[in-house]
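Regression test case RT-17, inverse folding.

Input:
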């Protein structure tokens, strides 16, 4: 690991994709906030959007162009229903995909939920130097992704994105 990477400040935006959640009932978004706070990372923005591809595309574009945000964490919309658009939108926007993120997420999920883990379309990568992670909507999935994959490595990822 590059020593300077551990010093990267995380300035995160949290986005929950749901047709039914409110800020009071958004357990996934609340879990992300709590884990970011525990890691002493900054939360710059938090929003809930309906499962709508154009709205999601516009929100991600706005946040990727916001210099106060270097990390975006999404929860919800990664499944296979007609309304699940997160994977499709994020995968189209990424400049580079972090293939290992989805692979490791599903491997770790398998230990908890068995073969249904293959239905997760968790994805991560970068857009214009911004780290983007998309997790399923369940609190267990958010906790797993945040504690095992995102929190331990996001500073390294940001450092890599800044390298020439």
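Golden output:
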């Amino acid at each position: 690991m590059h020593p300077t990477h551990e010093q990267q400040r995380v300035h995160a935006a949290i986005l929950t994709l749901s047709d039914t959640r409110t800020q009071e009932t958004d357990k996934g978004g609340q879990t992300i906030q709590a884990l970011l706070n525990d890691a002493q990372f900054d939360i710059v923005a938090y929003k809930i959007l309906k499962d709508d591809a154009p709205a999601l595309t516009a929100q991600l574009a706005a946040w990727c162009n916001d210099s106060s945000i270097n990390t975006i964490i999404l929860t919800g919309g990664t499944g296979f229903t007609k309304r699940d658009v997160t994977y499709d939108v994020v995968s189209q926007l990424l400049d580079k995909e972090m293939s290992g993120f989805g692979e490791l997420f599903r491997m770790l999920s398998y230990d908890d939920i068995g073969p249904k883990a293959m239905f997760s379309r968790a994805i991560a990568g970068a857009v214009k130097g911004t780290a983007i992670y998309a997790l399923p909507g369940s609190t267990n999935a958010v906790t797993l992704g945040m504690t095992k994959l995102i929190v331990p490595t996001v500073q390294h990822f940001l450092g890599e994105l800044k390298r020439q």
